[in-house]
## 1
Amino acid sequence: MGKKVFIIDVGKCNGCYCCQIVCKDEHVGNDWTPIAKPQPEVGQFWLELTERVRGTVPKVKVSYRPHLCMHCDDAPCMAACKVEGALYKRGDGLVIIDPLKCTGCKACVDLCPYGVIYFNEDLNLAQKCTGCAHLLDDGWSEPRCADACPTLALKMYDEDDPEAQALIAKAQVWMPELKDKVKPRVYYLNIPKRFIAGTLYDPVEEEVIIGAKATLKAADGSVLTTETDSYGDFWFEGIEPGVYDLELTYGGKSKSFAGLDTTEVEINLGDIPLT
Amino acid sequence: MAGDNKRPQSKPTGADKTVLKALGLSGGIFGACPCAVDVKDGKIIRIRPLHWDSEYDPKTFNPWKITKNGKTLEPLYKAVPAPWSLAYKKRAYSPNRIKYPLKRVDWDPNGAPGSVGPGGRNTQNRGKSKYVRISWDEAATIIANEIKRIHKEYGPLAILVQGDGHGECKMVHAPHGCSTLLLDKMGGFTQQVRNPDSWEGWYWGSRHIWGKGLVGMMNPADNIVNDVIQHSDMVVVWGGDPETTPWGFRGQFASRLLYFWTEVGIKQVYICPDLNYAAAIHADKWIPILPNTDAALQLAIIYIWITEDTYDKEYVATHTVGFDKIKAYVLGEEDGIPKTPKWASEKCGVPVWTIKALARDWAKKTVTIGHYFGGGMARGPYSHEPARLEVVILGMQGLGKPGVHQAQIAYTGMPKNVITGGADHMGPFANLTATPYGERLLKPHRGTPTAWGKQMIPKTMIEEAIKKGKVEFWGTGGHEEPTADQYKKYTYPIPKEEGGTEIHMMWTDTPCRVTCWNCGSDVMEAMRDPKIECIVAQHPWLENDVLSADIILPTNTTLEVNDISPCIREGDSFQSVILMNRAIEPIGESRSDYEAVCAVAEKLGMLEAVTDGFSEQELIRGTYEGMKFDTVVPWEEFKEKQYCVLPVAPDWEKYPAGLYNFWKDPEANPLPTPTGKLEFWSESLEKAFPDDEERPPIPKWIEKGITHDERISSKRAKAYPLLLMSNHGRWRTHAQCDDIPWTREALTGKVRGFDGYLYEPCWMHPSVAEPRGIKTGDIVKVYNERGAVLCGALVWERIMPGVVSVDHGARADFIIPYTLDRGGAINVIAPEGLTSRHAAGQATSGYLVEVEKVTMGQMEEWMRQYPEAFTREYDPASGLRFNAWIEEER
């Protein structure tokens, strides 16, 4: 049996929250010592579904991303733990906080760069995702979150599985600047980047303009082009965060936008009159 | 997108018992969302999706397969329930469970009707007074005596049965209507006839164009799932949310279908005021539209097609009646107002150029209109108009032609199984009527689809019936009633010589009028009328309308009973039958809804009459064999494995898709209309209601009428300038599941106010919030003349300017009964007016409101004036608690 990895295809995540909620179903009120003690009824999110609204009316999309313990190979939490064997990595790669050994010092809670460790005041324990190790040990092939996922966006694989290898090659990790340092075991596919979009129209005729050329120039000089569709819409979706210049041309007329800054957000230029 | 069926099963880790439960919430006989419930030492450990291939070789299911453009859609071998189905143990263990029978402290059954003070009935205190514990024996005796007294005094029709609705999926211990097993054998009762909620526009409108339909929607709809994939270029999802509303009825299969459409290149356009959960992830184009203004956009589309000659003229000539009248109206020949894109844009908020682009794109493509019920489109004032215009639009582009359908997405049109075959969705249940168990099994469930009471009141008119003592209505609203029923005038009461009488007692099971239907405030107020001498409620949780009852019987959840659930409706990977053995013992003194009725029946000497002598096990087995599921898997094997899967019919592809036969040959395959054609102009409507300007013989734009004045052009819009839209909740099925701590933690679940209370979210755009000084997390008051509801603001771009959105169904928590609600039960302020004068549907989306920030000062003022509202036991995790309404034991 190889080591476990999570591969999450955000492009198929419909935001149902089944993953976040079945994690609670498994771990609230259930004691899985020595893997985990119960988490409190509310307030901890061993798997947390995060949401991001992208764009402005009417060019808006929502992107979801399950966020959980990365079960790092060089876990900072393990390094910080002073108690022998209280925070350990199993043979299958899952990182476990031993509820019988944890002394409640909170060092790991404060230190985790992903913010996925929680402190249970009543039990005086640090707690986090266990990868449902207690279920895997009983023969489940995947944790509760993956079992409940209706679109199969969230999966656990053996990293030796050729299918997993092929996906990992295309995938990214969360907070990539940490990748080489902590070596996370959770991979994401299809996390959206940015977009620049708008609708081109003729204000005199009150008609959309179809087939106009849209040219987007990045700061590094690379160029993308597209055409406005049957609604007069153009979308440059999946562009890297950065600053862009845009030019729209049709029938000898043109409109330009310089310095479109998508570093933090997507840009919807709205309904753009071309006169 | 192939189903990933290599994944092995989940297991009952840590459990000593596993049972199966259908945890959909559509209610009654139609199950959905099968789950495995693991139990240890009498306590539920977990609920996980059922894997259909855990006990059977999936080859025996004859799995279906749909391929297009080199991509394949296949079933999954696991069910895909909603998150609150998987969290359902929190419903069984809710701190709001009614633990024992209750009597209202100041209601004395010995008091004379109308009496107040000590020893009186004090109906004026309903909704205010607390409750005291009584025994089952005492409760059943009081109810039995009240029934006898009422029957003697007024006759059997003086008891109103509210026995309909959505709820848990249970066959034997039906969540609704069990009281009819008793009362039907004691001379009858007045039936609250359920209105086709969520189908309003189609039921009261579209039926007049294409006939009865499936509650007014396109019928037949066989195989349209495959046909849309094969032939549609584009699906326009108009109003509904196929990523949300299916949750209660089928689970999340529709989500996979929507992703598949994208994979194979089918465009998805969403027309809705909010970026609903499906639009948020699947839309190629979102066209925001002001709530309930869809008819304007539809008319403008028709205008473009007529003036640019881009519709199927031949089809219109051969398959429809009355197009000339539509044309004259649209071109402005009738009223001098051409329904141009410019005209429409002012009404609906869609830019002129976008309207034109949509109309032209549509005409070029093969387009299906998709719904999952109507969202803001089919539940508002005059909803029959956009619902009818939708059929005109489809008709103008060759409705029935490959790829041109009205699709209730995956609700119909999936590959059929060997049992249901070509029958409509009631079909296999009809087999039960041939068995000795038929009447016993089906009667309780009749309340929802059928109008069968001796005396009837539409659900939407109960408060008027009480207040005025009489109502008249056209059409009972029963789901299964023929279209022509809508032309028939009914009265309540019926003539005295037929036993007609006003109602003086109400027996309600799992009620939620205050939060799920029209004019919740008026309904609750009406229930205080002294002429209603006794209200009996049976329900698992102490909430909503139950707080107006005089006697409350604690009933239990599906997790606490033995039952069976045929999950035979389309819309999941497979259909199945689930044997639902009891998971846990009943909580407190709760009994099943059926057992509760039996307790009363016993006091009346009617137990044998109610049970017909059948045991629970006989009824469960009788269901299984009566519906012929034993032809798939014999009873003993089913009992052992606790479920079976209905194999896909080998010839499932043979059923012509939707109205294909009508499209191909309308003469040989007439529609169930008087002319056999699509009646764009309905002679029947004209004959029945010649002066009805709200639902004219052809569909129109109705700015305002005698029933409603809710447009932004209204004078009222000065005080109430925003349009409210309301949809089925993401985290509920109607009023169910509002108290699950984990769904309340979701971003759009509840919003925590500065006072720590978890408020129902109110979505608004920054352009609405900023001038009102509102930010996300603020407590806001949503109000009109009818009252006010407190919500928590969510300010973002997921909704268009000029609109606020609050979903219906939150549990009411009145600060001032019944005009100021803290729980977010938005329907408290919904219009009293029905769909229109002659259409007794509810209109609960698309009406005028204003929103204002609630300051700490205002909240403190309310706390000073109404301390009892703020000192009730409350915990944000699950909301209101049972103990809040219980008087200390004496």
Note: The helical segments of chain A are 18-27, 76-80, 107-111, 133-136, 144-148, 162-170, 179-182.
## 2
Amino acid sequence: MRDHTQPPQSPQAPQAPQSVGYWRAVLRRLKHEPLAMLSAGVLLVLVISAVFAPWLAPGDPFKASMLKRLMPIGSPGYLLGSDELGRDMLTRLMYGARLSLVMGVVPVFSAFCIGTTLGLFAGYLGGRINMVIMRILDIFYAFPSVLLAVAISGALGPGLSNSLIALTLVFVPQIVRVAESVTTQVRQLDYIEAARMSGANAFSIIRVHVLGSVLGPVFVYATGLLSVSMILASGLSFLGLGVKPPEPEWGLMLNTLRSAIYNKPFVAALPGAFIFLTSIAFNLLADGVRSAMDIKK
Amino acid sequence: MSQETTTPLNTQDRGGPAQPILVVNNLKKYFPVRSGLFAREGKFVHAVDNVSFSVAKGKTLGIVGESGCGKSTTAKLIARLINPDSGKMVFDGDGVAEYGGIALKEFRKNLQMVFQDSFASLNPRLTIEQTTAYGPTVHGVSRAQAFAQARSLLQRVGLAPEQFATRYPHELSGGQRQRVNIARALAYQPRLVILDEAVAALDKSVQAQVLNLLQELKSERQLTYLFISHDLHVVHYMSDEVMVMYLGQVVEKGPVERIFSHAAHPYTRALLSAIPSMDPAKRTLKSPLEGDPPNPINPPAGCRFQDRCPLVKDICRSVSPMLAPVGVVYDHTVACHLNLEPPPHE
């Protein structure tokens, strides 16, 4: 492209100044990604069925029946079969989506906020501050995440909120690590130096110039953690540290149904299938959002 | 203070025109060479070693030297993007970042920099209008005013705002991006602009346009330039004074015509003889200098040019030469023991 001092007759030149905001442009680009839109639809259905479960669900999630245990999928009155206590699977899956989504989203979201902030400052400020933050987080890295979640959860005591805190603490170091490494790369670019030349303080530079480049990769990484979080939460529930039976939760249901895996494999696999469906939908949507956030597209 | 200007400029010309806008004294930066986590830091890259100079108001000081000689480090030290190990700077009579002097934030308002890599120096996620307006908003200018100012600046550097303002850097050519960088640098109404290889990455025709733009802006806004380049033609065209650097030290400094016609230091002569001649009869295959610059990690005692100098003497091996006046022209200084008389003009 030549250097124009006069307004050139460039075909892609916008005729009128665009007033479309950045996020609106992202949304517009996202609409052209079929997979991401499909995933968004799946997630929307899941969220709606979770939120409106009391009105939409065909039965009572706690009503057991000793006679109708482990009904196959498609039985009359039990569209998705029944579990080992004769409770309607469809109802329980819908109610279970509430807790499972909370257990998946809340810890990852809190860890995303805390971890990105820490990572940005550690990466941008560098030096000793970076070393202190990163070495402290390395301590958390020394333990496998399941063990860490169990240990923290056990120390805090059982309960939903405590297991949310435990899961958040498990994910923070991982997100900090990603955010820190991206920030360290971005920090060396000339445009950050140009921003420093303007006399702006670190906070302003991070907000305006660093955050945009860091959010994308961290966002994708964090969505990958959603499914991990759901599985870990179910593990905590299984150990009696998270959700307690008979409360419906996908992970817990998976655990309680595991004895039926040889009799009714499809019914037993249903909660797992839902966890899989949710996590893959989150991942695909995140991929779509990330590429839509890429300004060069 | 009440100087008539063509542009609404804030020329706090406190020291008057005779006072240098920037005086740099014994600027020094050694980078430690780390060989391992617990290794002792015994080795240092002598990136900038006792560099002193001053820049006169409204003039352009060209800094030349081969790559790795500390030109860019000097620029970053002046801009305080990296902190010097030692050395003082005085900006128009005020000590920079010292008690009773000019605060760093205030100093940066008066000093701006244009970088070589036009793409890396623009935030890919901001439109060029946002990039240009960012600085003034940091200094308390309202958003609307900053954007209006950004648009008029873009207009001034030759990018019609109605067409370019909302574009992203990757949608522009190299020359256009460098114009944006210039507009951004001018957004603070600086008095000193460091041009760090600002045109080196552009092709010749675009380079000429940008250089002319820089010259126009300089007289329009009473700017002072610190023009860093390895391209001697460009330096000759742009500069009033030239400073030649070799391995972190100043080897020669003087008015541009004097340097280009009566260079006193063997290194400067070698540099100048390396300029490709336009006259085919004068072209030569002979390399003006042998060898490479010595390792800047713990350089040897004496003159740093000793191993490549065709005229080296014993004293060069032991004593570092100081900058001293040479010849008949005032403020032509050279750091060389040989006390060479500048050759007569050809």
Note: Chain B touches chain A through 46 residues (CB under 8 Å).
